[in-house]
Amino acid sequence: MEGLTLSDAEQKYYSDLFSYCDIESTKKVAANGRVLELFRAAQLPNDVVLQIMELCGATRLGYFGRSQFYIALKLVAVAQSGFPLRVESINTVKDLPLPRFVASKNEQESRHAASYSSDSENQGSYSGVIPPPPGRGQVKKGSVSHDPVQPRTSADQQEPASPVVSPQQSPPTSPHTWRKHNRHPSGGNSERPLTGPGPFWSPFGEAQSGSSAGDAVWSGHSPPPPQENWVSFADTPPTSTLLTMHPASVQDQTTVRTVASATTANEIRRQSSSYDDPWKITDEQRQYYVNQFKTIQPDLNGFIPGSAAKEFFTKSKLPILELSHIWELSDFDKDGALTLDEFCAAFHLVVARKNGYDLPEKLPESLMPKLIDLEDSADVGDQPGEVGYSGSPAEAPPSKSPSMPSLNQTWPELNQSSEDTAIVHPVPIRMTPSKIHMQEMELKRTGSDHTNPTSPLLVKTSDLSEESKINSSVKFASGNTVADGYSSSDSFTSDPEQLGNNVTHQRSHSGTSPDNTAPPPPPPRPQPSHSRSSSLDMNRTFAVTTGQQQAGVVAHPPAVPPRPQPSQAPGPVVHRPVDADGLITHTSTSPQQIPEQPNFADFSQFEVFAASNVNEEQEDEAEKHAEVLPVEKASDPASSLRVAKTDSKIEEKTAASAPANVSKGTTPLAPPPKPVRRRLKSEDELRPEVDEHTQKTGVLAAVLASQPSIPRSVGKDKKAIQASIRRNKETNTVLARLNSELQQQLKDVLEERISLEVQLEQLRPFSHL
Amino acid sequence: MAVCVAVIAKENYPLYIRSAPTENELKFHYMVHTSLDVVDEKISAMGKALVDQRELYLGLLYPTEDYKVYGYVTNSKVKFVMVVDSSNTALRDNEIRSMFRKLHNSYTDVMCNPFYNPGDRIQSRAFDSMVTSMMIQVC
Question: Region Disordered: which residues (chain A) (predicted)?
Answer without folding.
Answer: 105-236, 377-412, 443-467, 479-598, 611-699
